[in-house]
Task: structure prediction
Amino acid sequence: MLKTILTRMSRLFSVPGDNPDLLKAQFEVFSSQVPLMYSIVLINAWALALNFMDVAPAWISLHLPAGFTLVCGLRLMGWWRARHIVPTAAAARQALTQTNLFALLLTTTLTAWALALYPYGDAQMQANIAFFIGISGLGVIICLQQLPSAALIAAVVINVIFVMYFSLAGVAAFAGMAVNLLLVSVALLLVVSVQFRHFSGAVSARRKLEAVSRENFRLANLDSLTGLPNRRQFFSHLDETFAAANGRRLAVGIIDLDGFKPVNDLYGHKVGDGLLVEVGRRLSALMHANVHIARLGGDEFALTVADCPEDADLLTFGERICTALRKPFVLPEATVQLSGSIGFAVFPELADSAQELYERADYALYQGKRSNRGHAVLFSGSHVVEIEQEKRIEQALSHADLDREIVVFFQPIVDIQNGRTVAFEALARWTSPVLGPVPPGQFIPVAERIGLIGQLTRVLLRKALATAADWPEDVVLSFNLSTHDVSSSDGAVAIVGIILASGIDPKRLDFEITETAMMYDFVQAKAAIDMLKALGCGIALDDFGTGYSSLSQLHALPLTKIKIDRSFVTDLDKNPASFKIVKSLLALSSDMGLRCVTEGVETEEELATLRKLGGQFVQGYLLSRPIAEDQVAGFLQSAAAEAAGNGHRASA
Result:
């Protein structure tokens, strides 16, 4: 029982350590009240000392107050220096516990000193002593209200000494003052207790509010699907890292998944989301301490590499990422395979700002997806030249008179079994008054980016149809459609209007589409293609074999033809892998009743190999480069004569 009472008493006079936030808040508030507390004590002490200066010895009326002043001044300086410091909970508790001990020593010493002056004064001066003890004690208790244990210590010490001394002094007035001080102290301690509960509750509420704010901030900067930092957090981190780089190498990498959208469309968004989660985990496992990975949105991720290694090591790291992404992802619903491309840019070599660093990494990614898909590409000096060239092209194209400056060239598609030209593919050629001849590989991507591709398509189609009107009825016009053309209902309607206005039989038209164009908006693209097919036009899937869902497109689209990409034809006679791929694609198209055109034939050996494999329709520089519209008639005559000669020799 006694032990329990002693334990509870010790708790009253100690600083609890179970609430770190409360301890730090007590330290913060008390440090701001220390000057007031010491001011009350020292002013009252010197006021009392001056009253007794003439009647009491110097050691008690001067030296002791000077000592109090020195000790309190040192304590005040210590607290003043710590006023802006945010201590740990342990440091705050240690400081507050020391305050408890100092409160015991200070109140005991001051009360004893004041009572030591009692014998040297008259009744009025003795009353000043009682007044000093009462006012100083109450002032100290009020200043210690955020530290109840110290306030309780001060109240107990002052009242015990005061009550005992004046009760024994035999002066009824002073005994009454002692009792009065005791009652006021008790009342004040109750107020302190209530105020401290309110203070503790406010600290607890603030802690909960801060926790909610931190959680909201975390969620606002977190990708809810993968758990990675999101786009907002990435750019915030990039700005901070860039500002702290101080000339040290910093790299930004942007990762884009190749083939994600077909997986999403084929298996549904649930599988797509699961795939993104697994991609996020796989990428996170590859990151080092100096690498920060985030998901920007969709199938795009980004990373920063602080203290970036040399270019070769950075590209090796990028290739390791690409290799990891090529490994199959085993999901509950299916096992899927894709790849990823990554573009890097490095500060300070080729970027002057965080924004430019990101934009140049994005440009490197774009170039990589065009020419080196599934690998890492580093932004280089040559890319700077390309960007400047693209800017000039963009300016010139934006102000171009397309009807006057754009012309159509035609590349023949030949039936190598009889030598007959069955079609011509329309190809755009642009000669700028400012830049001169600009290759289509340069101006067409720019036209897509700045939104001119639809206008360019309409100009080319009208010119190509006007030329094709003079061709033999059995010669087809093959025309390429961009992503914009098939993903916009307005674009598709405009194309149909141009066809109908031309007077040409739509059956003489083949429209070539790429898998990329289909994947941008499959539903709208299929609707546009169905419209053209219903009109009677043929539909060819261009660059067949290079995508990730070509086989699924064969079933989903009303195709009449496929075109084998030239990348499989180069060195066909020497490359066993290309030989097998082309052989399989030719057999597949035959089984499905589709015509198959092989692009990019440039050597006699490649042509001979195609004949051996059973290929029929061929296009390439070996047969003819693209020719101007005024050369088409002559080409057809020469080809017909050559075919007739070959037929005559064969019959002979």
Remarks:
- The chain is about 60% helix and 15% strand.
- The radius of gyration is 44 Å.
- The mean pLDDT is 83.
